[in-house]
Structures are given as C-alpha cells and as structure tokens.
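Students often ask why inverse folding is considered easier than folding. One informal answer: many sequences map to the same fold, so there is more than one right answer. In these notes we will look at a single instance of the problem. The structure comes first.
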C-alpha cells in the first residue's frame, strides 16, 4: 500500500507574494496558480492506481482533491473523494492572516520562542502541536486499515505534513522545518505487511 501525501495548491491568502503568511485553518480557496498546479499533480497521480482521494475539509484541500480527480478521466467513476479526519492544517490562532514580520512586531519574545521551539510554543488562540500530530498519525493508521492493499491520495497541508514526516523519521517535532513542502508536492509513504513505513519520496514535484 502506498499513501501519496500531497500538499494543496497555492492559495489566495498568499496572492500578495507573502509566502510567510500564517494561513492555518483560515479557509481560503485555491488561486488560479494553485488550480493549475493541481491539474499537473493530477496528471502525475492518475497513473498510480489510486483507489480513493482524501481531503482535510478545508477549501484549498477539497479543491485540490477535486481537480486531481478531474484528471483521472476513465478511472474517475471508480475513485471516491472522502474526508480524512485529523488532517486539517494546524491552527495558528491570533497569528493567522499575518506575516512573520507582523507577528514579530506584535510580540517579539513569543515569536522568537516559536522560532526556536515551534512544537512546544502555544500561540494565543491555537493548540499545541503534539495532539494535532497524534490525531494525524491516527488518521493515517485508520486509512491504512481501510486500504490495506490499495494506493490512496491524502491532500494535506504544509505544517501537518511536515509534522507527520518528521515524526515518522523519529525526530523531534520541533525540527519539522528541516523538511520542505512546496505547493502540490508529493510525499510517498509505502506500508508493507509486518514492516515499518518506508518514505520513498519527500517533497517531490514535477511542476
């Protein structure tokens, strides 16, 4: 079984060029650029024997999943879209919609703490990373049980994807930033009977 854990396409919140803007669970749609990225991603995934596509429930994830499915042509009728509980992006509370520079100007002490220990720093209005990571891992475990011999796509988000990947590597969650997640990048997780997960690809993109 393979899980194609992907990131959604470029979203409208970053249209101004602020790539460092905190989006979190702010529910924004894909930009035109993001829709084009999702179409190219669908062309790559349609040859992978996908049986189901999961999204997080946020617009940018749902739209990416729908566009991927639209590229499956003959297989489209046999592939379902479903919600994956626990795969929403981590919330950034009062920081959502702001750039890193804006957050730093509001509370430089908390921001510097977050830069050094992001997983253990609680942002006002947000939640600690650990229970969110555990929920995402539980979601993937449940999907593994449902699709034992099948390949699936899970359309996730930048931070939650990186937490999943760094956790699978057995590293400190605070180190998640060493992993990059570009828009519509693919991470391939292979699950074999009686063995641990193998990471075949991380942040791979042909876009």
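Output (designed amino acids):
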């Amino acid at each position: 079984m393979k899980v194609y854990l992907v990131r959604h396409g470029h979203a409208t919140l970053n249209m101004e060029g602020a790539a460092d803007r905190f989006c979190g669970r702010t529910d924004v749609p894909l930009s035109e650029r993001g829709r084009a990225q999702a179409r190219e991603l669908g062309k790559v995934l349609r040859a992978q024997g996908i049986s189901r596509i999961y999204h997080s429930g946020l617009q940018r994830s749902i739209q990416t999943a729908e566009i991927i499915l639209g590229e499956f042509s003959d297989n489209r009728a046999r592939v379902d879209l479903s919600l994956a509980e626990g795969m929403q992006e981590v919330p950034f509370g009062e920081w959502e919609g702001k750039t890193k520079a804006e957050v730093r100007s509001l509370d430089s002490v908390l921001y510097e703490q977050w830069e050094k220990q992001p997983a253990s720093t609680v942002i006002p209005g947000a939640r600690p990373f650990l229970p969110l990571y555990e929920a995402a891992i539980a979601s993937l475990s449940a999907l593994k049980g449902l699709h034992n011999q099948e390949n699936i796509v899970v359309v996730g988000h930048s931070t939650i994807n990186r937490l999943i990947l760094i956790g699978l590597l057995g590293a400190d969650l605070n180190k998640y930033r060493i992993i990059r997640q570009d828009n519509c990048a693919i991470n391939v997780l292979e699950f074999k009977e009686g063995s641990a997960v193998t990471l075949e690809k991380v942040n791979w993109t042909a876009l």
